[in-house]
Amino acid sequence: MADIASSEVTSSEPVAIALDFPDNRLLIDLCGEFDRNLAQVEQALGVQIVHRGNQLEVVGPADAQAQAAEALNAMYERLEGGRALEKGDIEAALRFGSSDSGEAIADASQLEMFKGGRVEIRTRKKPVEPRTERQKQYVAQLFSNELVFGIGPAGTGKTYLAVAAAVSLFLDGHVDKIVLSRPAVEAGERLGFLPGDMKDKVDPYMQPLYDALADFLPGKQLAKLIEDKRIEIAPLAFMRGRTLSNAFVVLDEGQNATAMQMKMFLTRLGEGSRMAITGDVTQIDLPRGQPSGLVEAMNILKDVEQIGFSYFTSTDVVRHPLVAKIIRAYEAASNQS
User: Fold this and answer.
1) Burial (Cβ within 10 Å: 0-12, 13-18, ≥19) of residue 74
2) Number of neighbouring beta carbons within 10 Å of residue 218
3) Beta-bridge partner residues of 6
4) Which end of the chain is less congested by CB atoms within 10 angstroms, N or C?
5) Burial of 171 per CB tally in 10 Å (0-12, 13-18, 19+)
């Protein structure tokens, strides 16, 4: 962590704080190519950052200076730990700073991954880290509860983190298989009959789940696990009549499950299994007048013990920053109507 010193440039200029970073090589990585990482912090917080030798001087309002100092220290600590620094990691540092205490995380003390306050899900290809406080709490619930609901708008990492948790627990031997499912409901348009066998017909609906798995497992290993049915990806309708034991089960796009389908899916939970259900109640594609099983389950199960609920908002969006603005604009328009 950098040492912080204050210096007044002149009587007419604002006070700057100077951060010392001892490793010049890491400082170069901290600044980024053409200082683009510093520019990202400047734009987000409304400060000016000047690179002088092994120091970064931060000029701006006192609260913004303090937030920038925390973010820069968190970014440097990440580099010291041998981890890469990408745009999303900088956004996470701006949200968290270096005060990642983890005090708000339920049952975090029981989980090895939460030691030191930093949350990291280990997969075969890369570690996955929550980038907002709600994501952090959601991950804690995925590892401490047998049934978890992740509810919120697109881009908040609900499904991505659930699949990452499933892969991590599978690789560590805590579950024997992974089952990923979605309702095969078209999003507002009729695609007609699709060519090919049953797999060819349902794969377009399941593609987001394949994409998430491909981020966490090497291609050959993923293909082998699917071939051996240790990873299953299937439409929700295929779950009827099954008991899923010693498995991590993820239902994506749960808002498009009917009330009957949701009850059927929830009662598939077998011994030694965990289940995560994700969805966005503002994007229900069911026919008009057909109630969403996710909305019903939220109301019926809200007071049941050992069931976790995580509710995300536009502030948790970790896709392109414009996505959060789009979601807020739609929310504002909905509230006015």
Assistant:
1) buried
2) 11
3) 17
4) C
5) middle
Helix (H) or strand (E) holding 72: helix 62-80
Strand ranges of the sheet holding 55-59, from the earlier edge strand across to the other edge: 3-8, 15-20, 55-59, 48-52
Q: What gap in Å lies between CA 313 and CA 327, rounded to an integer?
A: 9
**Distance, CA of 97 to CA of 226 (rounded, Å):** 40
- Quote the pLDDT of residue 97: 54
Q: Tell me, what DSSP letter sits at residue 218?
A: -
CA-to-CA distance for 54 and 306, rounded, in angstroms? Answer: 50
Cα 203 to chain centroid, rounded = 23
Per the model's pLDDT, the better-predicted residue between 30 and 95 turns out to be 30
User: Above 80 in pLDDT, residue 202?
Assistant: no
Strands (E), 38-184: 48-52, 55-59, 147-151, 177-182
Cα distances (angstroms) measured from residue 233 to each of 39, 122, 177, 237, 252: 42, 21, 11, 12, 11
Which residue(s) pair with 121 in the sheet? 128
Q: What letter would DSSP give residue 121?
A: B
Q: Look at residue 207 in the predicted model and tell me its pLDDT.
A: 84
Question: Which token pair is 195?
Answer: 């060519």
Does residue 194 carry a pLDDT above 60? no
Strand partners, 151: 279, 311
User: What stretch of H or E contains 266?
Assistant: helix 259-266
Give 298's pLDDT tier (boundaries 50, 70, 90): very high
Q: Residue 88: what are its φ and ψ, rounded to 5°? A: -65, -30
Q: What is the pLDDT of residue 103?
A: 35
| Nearest C-alpha neighbor of 76 from the set 20, 5, 18, 117 | 20
Predicted confidence at residue 4, as pLDDT, reads 57
The end-to-end CA distance of the chain, in Å, is: 50
> Crossing angle of helices 87-96/62-80, nearest 10°?
130
